[in-house]
Amino acid sequence: MKITEDGFVNRNKKIILIAVAIMLVSALAGAGIAYLNANGKYNTISDALSSQPVKNDTDDMKISAVDLFIHNFTADLFTVIGGVFFSIISVILVIFNGISIGILFGIDFPYAMVSILPHGVIEYFAGALALAIAFKITLLEIKIIKNRNIKNTLKEHNTDLRDMMTILIVMIVLLGIAAIIEAHITPMIVTGYFGL
Q1: Residues in Cβ contact with 192 at an 8 Å cutoff, skipping those fewer than 6 apart
Q2: Closest Cα partner for 28 from 105, 91, 123?
Q3: How far is the C-alpha of 158 from the C-alpha of 104, rounded, in Å?
Q4: Which of 43, 123, 142, 153 has a Cα at 20 to 30 A from 33?
Q5: Using CA atoms, how far apart are residues 145 and 121, in angstroms rounded to an integer?
């Protein structure tokens, strides 16, 4: 199951790039819309954190890496399962996720850079991989419908099934890394940047 062998990258490059593009375009759209609708109230979170010293009592509010991983994995699992429904639900979930993350960048870029970017790049790439799996499920489903034979189609396309499992494993590893960064490193970056 080596990613670089057997043409894995070539077989999956387009579908992953399409998924990443959907995520990025929706994030940029969210940022643009939020920026245009901010009515001059930019960086309010950053300004509030920078101007008022806040007592650092965040121990009660900390979320564990395991909780973050479970939350993000569940969200991405819904995206994967949406592939059974011709990826319509999956695309909607990814667009909504991209827009919602873009909104924070549009209204408070410095805060978003320090509070989301450290773990967000990995986490949202994992979300794009979930969409790629959903697309592959949809393509396999279409082939099954055309062939009218589930067993033979799955046998013929067992490489696609292995590719989906490989992408899923990569997605899970990335979500684990992102959860550790979000739980332990991102709070230190926010605290250091804003002097909390």
Answers
A1: none
A2: 105
A3: 41
A4: 123
A5: 36
Residues 34, 107: contact at Cβ < 8 Å?
A: yes
Contacts of 3 (CB under 8 A, 6+ apart): 9, 166, 170
Q: Which residues lie closer than 8 Å to 146 by C-beta, 6 or more apart?
A: none
Q: What is the distance, to the nearest Å, from the Cα of residue 125 to the centroid of all Cα atoms in its chain?
A: 5
Place of tokens 């901010």: 38
Q: Which residue has the tokens 């667009």?
A: 95
- Which positions ≥6 away from 172 have C-beta within 8 Å? 73
| Helix, strand, coil % over all residues of the chain, rounded to 5 | 85, 0, 15
AA identity, residue 120: G
